[in-house]
Design a protein that fits this description.
Elements (H helix, E strand, L loop, with lengths): L8 E7 L8 E6 L8 E10 L1 H7 L13 E2 L3 E9 L11 E4 L2 E2 L4 H4 L12 E3 L3 E2 L6 E4 L4 E4 L10 H17 L9 E5 L3 H12 L3 E6 L6 H8 L3 E4 L8 H5 L4 E4 L4 H10 L5 E4 L13 H10 L3 E4 L5 H17 L8 E6 L3 H5 L7 E5 L3
Parallel strand pairs: 8-9, 12-13, 12-15, 13-14, 15-16, 16-17, 18-19
Antiparallel strand pairs: 1-2, 1-4, 3-5, 3-10, 3-19, 5-6, 6-11, 7-8
Helix pairs in contact: 3-4, 3-9
Amino acid sequence: MAVTQATQTMEAVAVTPGQAQSARMVTMPRPAVAPGRLLMRVLEVGIDGTDTEINNAQYGEAPAGSDFLVIGHEGLSRVEAVGEGVRGFSAGDLVVATVRRPDGCANCQAGESDMCLTGRYTERGIRGAHGYMAQFYDEVPDFLVKIPPELRSFAVLLEPLSVVEKAVFQAWKIQERLVWQPKRAVILGAGTIGVLAAILLRLRGLEVHVYATTPEDDDRARLVGSLGAAYHDVNRHPLAGLAEELGQIDYILEATGVSSVAFQAIGAVGVDGVVCLVGISGGNRQIEVPGDQLNLRLVIGNRVVFGSVNANRRYFEMGVQHFEEGQRRWPGIFERLITRRVPFNDFRSALDRRPTDIKTLLTIGG
């Protein structure tokens, strides 16, 4: 897989959008080092549900003029070369790139492409732009976040952490509407997002409860417990009794993407509480909900429900800060989320998500 100066090609993992199980290795031109841009050598890429769903043809959009999409949106890279006119970066710097690229709407122009008004954005590895599951990519400095060398072993987790950063920051921003002193938080789901949320909320000093489907002697449960948070197996602690079991719940982060769970969260949050939905429900399943009761609870209890997706640069920068804080408080905690490292040429194994996986990394460069 070595890239040579003679051929100036590279290898990447790509899919044909709309064609299930089409992930394959492709050879494509290696980006040139252009003025105002940087060339990055990809070190490793995190695999998440988005990658497997794109490979299952649930969504995904190739760039204009291409019949394939290079996937991967959680990438850690090293600066290979710096184009003319670029300041603040040097060859050898570690970087994580953001995912979404703006269109011309007012929010995008203000640096908040995650709040795009038109929906005409592109997203690396997802929609209209090649991703990071390749040996190289090029980018402008605005979308690159520098990583301190001491965070190298787990910095690839920055993209999912940025999603949690936004979900928490926005909730606390919303709650500036009242005098709010949250004490208890619930996280639904114990995937990467759920565990990172537990870390972030414990750093804020909240009592944290994580509910998931894996048993209470699972590695995830032990990881959550090491934070001083509580882990609950929903088979033993059904969500229908969540409020009765815990009492007042000030904040709920729903990270399962299961619509029935989302509505249970809305029904369980306490007075003046807030629910953030970050899980995406695919398909067209219909469920029956107690609409009148939910409406009454939301109105009478001043409760808030909001959705959050993607994250702009400032949340990535917050994540770097919280990486450092979390590592000081619980040394080695972030490395424990990485359960598999898979070689580049074994990408199919990486895309085959296993029940024991928290985060699988595809290792690409040295």
